[in-house]
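Project outcomes to date are best conveyed with an example. Our students and postdoctoral researchers have been running inverse folding experiments weekly, and each run begins with a structure described purely in C-alpha cells. The record below, which covers 291 residues, was selected by the lab manager from last quarter's runs and is presented without edits.
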C-alpha cells in the first residue's frame, strides 16, 4: 500500500509533548486469529485521544492490553515510563491506581447502590473508612453531574446516561491521571451524549486528565478529541488531528469520515464553532471600558 497521509505517532515525534503511554510492536493473537501486529501508538499527557476502527479491529482489546487486563503475545506497553509487563505485582498495583476506567456497559455492581459502587475503590485501595469513603463518593458523583438522590439508587433504577455518569464517578474515585473510556456515549440519546462530551471536556480541562477514548461516535470525535487514531490492518493505520486523519487514502477512513454521518458531524462542529465565536464577540462588545 502507498504511504498514508496520517502516519503512526511514533513517526511524528512532537518534542513539546510528554508521552505517558507508549505502545511498541504490539502483537495480540488469540489462537490462529491475529488482532494486532506491529502496532505502535503514543498517547500524550493532557490530550484526549480518540481511537476508532471497524468492527473486529481490536479497539477494546488495545484498551484492555494497556490497562493490563489482556497480556499481549509480544511487544511492550510503557505507562509513565514503566513497562507494565515486567513490573512486580506490588509496583503494578500502585501504578494502576493512576488509571480510571469506564467500561462500555458501565460495569457497576448491581447489588450495590451508586454511592457504594463509587466508595468501593476508596475503601479497598485508598484505605478510607466507610463514612469518609461515602462522603468522598458524593463529591465524585457531583463532579460527574449526578444529583444527590442518585447516590441511594441501585443501577437498575438508573437511566443509561446516569449509569455512564455513575461509572465515570467511580473511574474518578482515586483521582487518576489517565482515564480510559470504552464507548462512553454508546446507547445514549443525542442530548445525553452531547452532555457527556461537554462533561468530559470540562473534567479534562479542570483536572488535567489524559483521556484514551474508544468510540465510534463522530460527534464525540469532532467535539472533544485532540487527536484521532485509526485501527486497521492490525495496526494503527493513521493518527493525528482529525482533519489530517480524515484525509488518509483508505477506503474505510473515507467512508467513515466523509459519508453522510461524517459530513453531518463536521457541519455540526463547524456550526458550534461559529456559535461560540459569536458569543465571544457579543461578550467582548459589552465589556466595560477601562480608564
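After processing, the design step wrote out the following sequence:
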Amino acid at each position: 500500500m502507498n504511504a498514508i497521509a496520517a502516519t503512526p505517532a511514533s513517526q511524528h515525534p512532537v518534542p513539546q509533548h510528554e508521552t505517558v503511554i507508549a505502545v511498541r510492536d504490539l502483537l495480540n493473537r488469540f489462537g490462529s486469529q491475529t488482532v494486532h501486529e506491529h502496532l505502535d501508538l503514543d498517547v500524550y499527557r493532557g490530550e484526549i485521544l480518540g481511537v476508532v476502527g471497524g468492527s473486529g479491529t481490536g479497539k477494546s482489546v488495545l484498551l484492555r492490553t494497556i490497562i493490563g487486563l489482556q497480556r499481549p503475545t509480544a511487544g511492550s506497553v510503557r505507562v509513565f515510563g514503566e513497562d507494565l509487563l515486567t513490573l512486580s505485582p506490588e509496583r503494578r498495583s500502585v501504578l494502576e491506581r493512576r488509571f480510571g476506567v469506564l467500561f462500555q456497559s458501565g460495569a457497576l455492581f448491581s447489588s450495590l447502590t451508586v454511592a457504594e459502587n463509587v466508595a468501593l475503590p476508596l475503601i479497598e485501595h485508598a484505605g478510607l473508612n466507610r463514612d469518609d469513603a461515602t462522603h468522598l463518593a458524593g463529591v465524585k458523583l457531583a463532579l460527574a453531574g449526578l444529583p444527590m438522590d442518585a447516590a441511594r439508587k441501585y443501577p437498575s433504577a438508573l437511566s443509561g446516561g446516569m449509569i455512564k455518569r455513575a461509572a465515570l464517578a467511580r473511574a474518578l474515585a482515586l483521582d487518576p491521571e489517565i482515564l480510559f473510556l470504552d464507548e462512553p456515549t454508546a446507547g445514549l440519546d443525542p442530548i445525553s451524549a452531547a452532555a457527556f462530551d461537554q462533561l468530559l471536556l470540562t473534567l479534562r480541562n479542570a483536572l488535567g486528565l489524559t483521556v484514551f477514548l474508544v468510540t465510534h461516535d463522530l460527534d464525540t470525535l469532532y467535539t472533544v478529541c485532540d487527536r484521532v487514531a485509526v485501527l486497521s490492518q492490525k495496526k494503527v493505520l493513521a493518527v493525528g488531528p482529525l482533519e489530517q486523519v480524515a484525509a488518509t487514502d483508505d477506503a474505510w477512513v473515507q467512508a467513515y469520515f466523509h459519508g453522510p454521518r461524517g459530513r453531518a458531524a463536521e457541519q455540526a462542529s463547524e456550526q458550534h464553532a461559529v456559535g461560540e465565536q459569536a458569543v465571544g464577540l457579543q461578550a467582548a462588545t459589552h465589556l466595560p471600558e477601562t480608564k
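The domain at 21-98+177-282 is CATH 3.40.50.300 (Rossmann fold). The mean pLDDT is 86. The training component of this project remains on track.
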